[in-house]
Amino acid sequence: MRALGQYLIIWAGLLGAPVAFASDVPAASGVDFYRWLVSEPGQRASLAQLKKQCENVLGEAAHLKCAVTVFARMLEAKAANQLPEYYLAIQRRHGRAIEADADLKPLFSMFGDQSLAILAATGEFSVRGPRQPEVLPIHPYAKDAYFAEEVLPFVDVDAANGATTRFVLDTGAPQTRVNAATAKLMGIRLLPDASYRYSTFYGEKALPARLGILASLRVGHREFRNVLVFVSDRENLLGLDLISKLGPLRITRRALELNPPLSVRCDTPITYSRQDLNQRLLVEAWLDRRATRAIIDTGNIDYLTTATLGDQVGASAIRPGNSPTQGPDRTRYQSVQGVLAMRGTALPVTYKYFPGFTLPPSWVAGHYVPSILLGWRAFNDFELHLDIESGHSCLNRI
Q1: Which of 148, 203, 172 has the alpha carbon at shortest distance from 318?
Q2: What is the pTM of this model?
Q3: In whole angstroms, how large is the CA radius of gyration of the chain?
Q4: CA dist 186 to 117, 154, 165, 174, 324, Å?
Q5: How far apart are CA 148 and CA 242, in angstroms?
């Protein structure tokens, strides 16, 4: 996520609606779907297993909730060609409930008939290429000839047609996103009657975007095929949906290392949270002696961005992103001095407090995750070791 950009979410009820957990599912459901989902078997379950588990849930309301979760997991898994059949099945079974729900109705208007036909004919999503050690440079700007006041971690990304462009390596973005110019450059096939809307950390709501299929996307020697991507008017983001599928990696201020040597150190363990499309990398932390969880967000230009206030030392004003916000201008933040502590480490930090601005509700094991983002400037002090498959992911002090 970029502090002057946005944190990508699906707005149409998929993530904006409250997430159903065990306490929300009626006792008559027969299957405690959400308790199973956050267990290790549930986290590692295939899409077929998810669908089967949901089918065992009794009660129409409970089944609709779990079906939306399964649909979200399909999007996360980039299983474009599996979406149409399940999408239409949910519509057939729960049409009246969807029509009456202000959140679900836009979600199930997301794809038109032409888009569903294109998705159904799309090949299987796959990840290919050798798993060998590889060091990819991180660039501070989108182009070598372009300089900005703030730097972000850009990496080179290649398409099947030979086009190369730079994407922000963004662990805070659940989904990979491209802008319209890149979509044209890389030959992305836009879905003709599909659209969605998303919100941002900074109060921007219902921003429009489209969806498309990219035949091939390559990061180093790793190639993703038949990739469902989101297209908007903002910067290109390589999101956690694809970053998490690159295999073991190490992110430092200067490089993205694929398949690096295993780190024996683990200063602060990382939790990989998966709840619908809200994939996040979380660390336990203390901000001004208050226990919290922080989201590791390499697309955030700041050291720390938060909705939790410490000791105020000044105030400034900015406008987030490059789109106008709705309603009166409330884009003010306060610069705050405080202390950030993580297992064995305590650092004085100056962070940005955005009163009233939060990410959409995110629940992990029944607990709310607040809007605290540990951003790219923090990588002057830390490096990220990420291995989703093994579960051994750590944030280490340099």
Answers
A1: 203
A2: 0.84
A3: 21
A4: 22, 17, 9, 21, 28
A5: 26
